[in-house]
Amino acid sequence: MSYHVRQDETLSPEGLAKLQRAKLARVLDEAARCSRFYQSKWDGLDLESIGQAATVEAVLAALPLTTRAEIQEDQQAAPPFGTILTHPVNEYTRLHQTSGSTGFTLRFIDRPEDWAWWKHCWSMVYRAGGLTPEDRCVFPFSFGPFVGFWAAFEAAAALGNLCLPAGGMTTRARLDYLLETEATFVCCTPTYALRMAEVAREAGIDLSASRVRALIVAGEPGGSIPATRERIETAWGARVLDHAGMTEIGPYAFECIEAPGGMHVTESEFIAEVIDPHSLQPVAAGHPGELVLTNLGRLGCPLIRYRTGDLVQRVRGRCACGRSFARLVGGILGRIDDMVTIRGNNVFPGAIEAILREHPGIVEFQLQALTDGALAELRIDLEPTPGVDASDLPETVARAVKDRLNFRPTVRLVAPGSLPRFEMKAQRWIRTKGHVEPDE
Prior knowledge:
Layout: H1 13-34, H2 36-41, H3 47-50, H4 56-61, H5 68-77, E1 94-97, E2 107-110, H6 112-128, E3 136-139, H7 148-158, E4 162-165, H8 171-180, E5 185-188, H9 190-203, E6 214-217, H10 226-236, E7 239-246, E8 250-254, E9 262-265, E10 270-275, E11 288-295, E12 306-315, E13 327-329, E14 334-335, E15 340-342, E16 345-347, H11 349-356, E17 362-372, E18 375-384, H12 393-405, E19 410-413, E20 429-433
Parallel strand pairs: 3-4, 3-5, 5-6, 6-7, 17-20, 18-19
Antiparallel strand pairs: 1-2, 7-8, 8-9, 9-13, 10-11, 11-12, 12-13, 12-14, 15-16, 17-18
């Protein structure tokens, strides 16, 4: 067993079920006694009988799902934090909020005990990625209310690593900074890893000659998209490790170095279910479905059976790294609400990105789904690499999409530097009402 694998990550199915059962009982008790949100939601349920069900799965199946819309309504009705909390607000010391990319910013607060749990979850991300005490971690993002890399920064510091904050800098300044400080680990989004590589190339900097040996990426599916991953690893000469978490629920999945192309669910700290997003029933083992999570250690702000909206494919079996935690094959496959049906084909942005990243002549792109009633078409804007003849690129890309996804999009070239660049989550997927003539 490697030094970076904890004992609770290698439990037998029976041992894991016992651990989860004990933690779930504590969460349910805390929520039932102290959270007005869950007291109202569970009104009329016989929680004592439900808690005696034979399995963890049976306990959860008897409880209703929790949705983002419910939390939003709760926070709007009882601002600013809603009624989900289990303790008085003056016991909480941290506030973080969602990006607001879905139209409403959700705010969540944590007590010191809950923040320690966040750092514990992140420590498993680092250990699975091979972090050692000698590594130096750089965090090239602004230290606003976004939770992801606050937790990453403090967890690395708690592990004893030198932490290098890189907020308030231009991309070029950040590159100089990570080179001068001899950083070995980088935490960022896949998009920003590519953006730093783009700026480095323009400045004549060879990132593959830096000390960086690993990038932990999160916030987007790119870390588990092979072509995106390969592009980042080639530019940096370093390994990419994917990670998934949500402000609402916590840091719930990580990639190990022994089995790339998927993420382990941190099952000692979360219970994961995979359901059909329409029937809301469990899917068969190994089939794709929507990920539903219950956090087991954030007692001050519990979420029980939370619909993440993430499409995943879960498999079980002991990994080469020694962990028995379930794996999400291919990471996060997409967002349920990002799917658009084009000529009978269910299309996710990640499927388009997987094709576009295979073409080295594309620096940046934007996808626009135009809907006209029940019909939809896709337009792809491509920003080519400066100085490269890209005249054949639209036809090449349109043909590749047709061959792989069974429909032909409209593809346009745009001027170099004209598409937006992103530091955090990229907003490349746009839905608008209108019509675009298909390029047959």
